[in-house]
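Box 4.2: Ligand-aware structure prediction
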Amino acid sequence: MPRDRFGREIDYLRLSVIDHCNLRCVYCMPLRGLSFVPAPELLTAAEIETVARAAVSVGFRKFRLTGGEPTLRPDIVEVTRRIGSVPGVEDLAMTTNGILLPRLARPLREAGLRRLNIHVDTLHPERLKMLMRFASLEEMEAGIAAAEEAGLLPIKINCTVTRDFNDGDVVDLARRALDGDWHVRFIELMPLGGGETAHVALSQFVPSAETRRRIEAELGPLEPVPSQSPSDEARNFRFSHGDGVVGFISPVSEPYCGACNRMRLTADGKFHLCLLNDDELDVKQALRSGGGTAEVAAILLKAVTLKPTGHRLDEGLSTRVRSMFQIGG
Ligand code: SAM
């Protein structure tokens, strides 16, 4: 397994396969002024497979498809099948808003996808429209039902907590966990990419401790669940009177850089060394000038070596160049 210069074992590759999204969450994508990677500059399914083979050859085992919205990619089932069929891929998951799952959940499952994280910021229909803008609750619930039917389990629900938008709705989401339906994780906002969305992330930030207090005040005490994996980004808790689990992902108030095991691939073919940093190494040029698995593996190992640690999110400083939808959440 590759180790970086801080001794961290890096075996988890998150692949952003597209930077387009069908939603415009207020903290992620502005309504105007967006520019996207032109289609010819996106890595092809075959190129993504080469990267996955290279990653496995140096010890990566876990893979996640993300975006943008990964299900918007017309060949997402083929991308999934290609990665899923690489020997040595032990886990293949996807992060999605779930809207297109009613038609894609089963083919994705058959192509080798194992698990899903589905993004639902609130169960309140009007506030959902304000926060995620183009989403409807019916579409999201239908997506979750389709994923369950297809056996893409366990499903984790991701809720990014944004003051004055959904900070009051966390209890309703946590109640779904208490009822044993969902594993819900509450994520702290990070100011990525500068501009309007980073401003929202800074001004509407809610610390996980506050979200937890709000949930406990209504639903009773939460007891820590011992971490199953040292690199789990979430601190998980169980209700003392129920089976459900809620998690808190707190990159700002409780950074977990020391446990990071991730490398990222952007849709335009760069290894992005850390979510909260702009450092990248190009891999597309190597792929498009005849490079194969060995060349890509060498670039990936260099990326692991250069991977930074630490961030200055508490000072409001983060990436300048890329926003979350351009890196892959
Ligand atoms: N479209 C998919 C989705 O909605 O899950 C995958 C990409 S999206 C960028 C992944 C996750 O990143 C979502 O849960 C979203 O709420 C979260 N996210 C986006 N911008 C964020 C930010 N600035 N801080 C924290 N989380 C953010």
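In the box above, the bound molecule is S-adenosylmethionine. The two ends are 23 Å apart (CA to CA).
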